[in-house]
Specification:
Blueprint: H1 2-28, H2 43-57, H3 67-72, H4 89-99, H5 103-133, H6 138-144, E1 148-154, E2 160-166, E3 177-181, E4 185-192, E5 195-202, E6 213-216, H7 223-246, H8 256-262, H9 271-291, H10 300-307, H11 315-336, H12 341-351, H13 356-359, E7 368-369, E8 375-378, E9 384-386
Antiparallel strand pairs: 1-2, 2-3, 4-5, 5-6, 7-8, 8-9
């Protein structure tokens, strides 16, 4: 009987030792490999001896039902709710021998754990209260615990759309929400009519995002250059009027009766004389603008043979002559005023004195003389041009 009781006590001792090691691993980080630590080699032996002595005295109470209590059939002793209250004298002796933690130290550790548990409980209560205040459903609460990932898609115009999807979503999962990011833009500066313009545009497509704004006004041209450009503009206007007289703007037919009148001796007769006068005025204005001197009378026959329409010319030849005539007159304007700054100013000044009622009376290619002596004509582009 004594041998069986001794064997039973030995088995219970092993069980109690295992429980004690587990308790120490939870409190001080000591696990089953405690023998490989820096602790003294005889620490476990001393703990075993202390454990055997406590067993003999019936004081082993490291669990709710101690070994001796189980053997004698007694009820477990009721203790307090804290972890320090649950520790038996043997547990405290082991903590002192192995971990060098006395009862006050264990008490402080217990209090810290209690405070941590209280703070955790309070935090959970605040989270639940916030969820209830926002009237979130159980599904929304479960959804709030899901991990998410952003999926960014770059659109053709450079803008980006960000879809919010579950982190572990399958191929069939749809995004729960999305938001758009504007396309990349840049500030673009360019020149128009000599003025420096600035605009915000799409960096990828080049499309304007804002309306162009004039950043700086064009620099004024010298008075001499402005005068030359004005004369060259008059030359172009005379040529347009001459072309409208010879080639009908609507039917595109050549007025050969007018060409015959232009061939009459003495500079032509009737409308023919007027047409030849327009040609010479155009050439004179062009030469004056370029050289500052009037055209030489001996040069007029040469220019007439090159640019003036003749009765024996076919329609294509006449059209080609007017084309080269326009290029000759406009070439000086492109050299003196490449950005059309001076031309726009001169045109604005000339057109600014024409009332709207008078503008409605103008016809393409026809010079109209008003009561104040001003002569105006409507060009092929629909712009009013003052002829004097």
């Amino acid at each position: 009987m004594k041998q069986a009781e001794t064997a039973y006590k030995a088995e219970q001792l092993k069980l109690e030792q295992a429980k004690t090691k587990w308790l120490l691993s939870q409190i001080g980080g000591i696990d089953a490999n405690i023998k490989n630590s820096d602790m003294p080699a005889n620490s476990l032996e001393e703990a075993d001896k202390a454990l055997q002595e406590l067993l003999q005295k019936g004081e082993m109470q490291s669990t709710e039902g101690g070994v001796i209590d189980q053997m004698v059939g007694q009820q477990p002793q009721q203790r307090g709710g804290g972890s320090l209250d649950d520790m038996s004298p043997m547990d405290m002796a082991l903590m002192k021998a192995i971990m060098n933690v006395d009862a006050p130290g264990a008490g402080r550790l217990s209090e810290q754990r209690k405070r941590g548990a209280v703070l955790e409980r309070q935090g959970n209560e605040r989270i639940e209260q916030t969820i209830r205040s926002n009237d979130l459903s159980a599904e929304a609460l479960e959804l709030s615990k899901t991990e998410w990932k952003p999926v960014v898609i770059t659109n053709a115009d450079g803008s980006k759309t960000t879809h919010i999807m579950p982190k572990f979503a399958g191929a069939s999962n749809k995004p729960t929400m999305s938001f758009d990011t504007p396309p990349p833009v840049e500030t673009f500066t360019y020149k128009k009519d000599g003025a420096e313009m600035t605009v915000i545009r799409n960096k990828r497509t080049g499309e304007n995002v804002t309306e162009p704004i004039k950043k700086a006004n064009p620099k004024g041209a010298p008075a001499e250059s402005a005068g030359k450009v004005a004369m060259a503009m008059n030359a172009v206007d005379y040529a347009k009027q001459l072309k409208a007289m010879i080639i009908d703007p609507e039917t595109k037919k050549v007025n050969r009766a007018l060409l015959m009148q232009m061939m009459a001796p003495g500079g032509g007769i009737g409308e023919g004389r007027k047409a030849k006068s327009l040609f010479r005025d155009a050439m004179d204005a062009r030469i004056r603008a370029a050289t500052g001197a009037a055209i030489n009378a001996e040069e007029i026959p040469y220019y007439e043979s090159v640019y003036m329409a003749k009765l024996l010319d076919n329609d294509s030849t006449i059209a080609d002559k007017f084309k080269r005539f326009d290029e000759f007159l406009n070439s000086y304007l492109e050299t003196m005023d490449p950005n059309s700054v001076i031309r726009n100013r001169v045109k604005t000044t000339q057109q600014g004195t024409l009332p709207e009622a008078a503008f409605k009376q103008l016809k393409p290619g026809v010079i109209t003389t008003f009561e104040n002596g001003q002569q105006w004509m409507l060009d092929s582009a629909g712009e009013a041009i003052r002829m004097n």
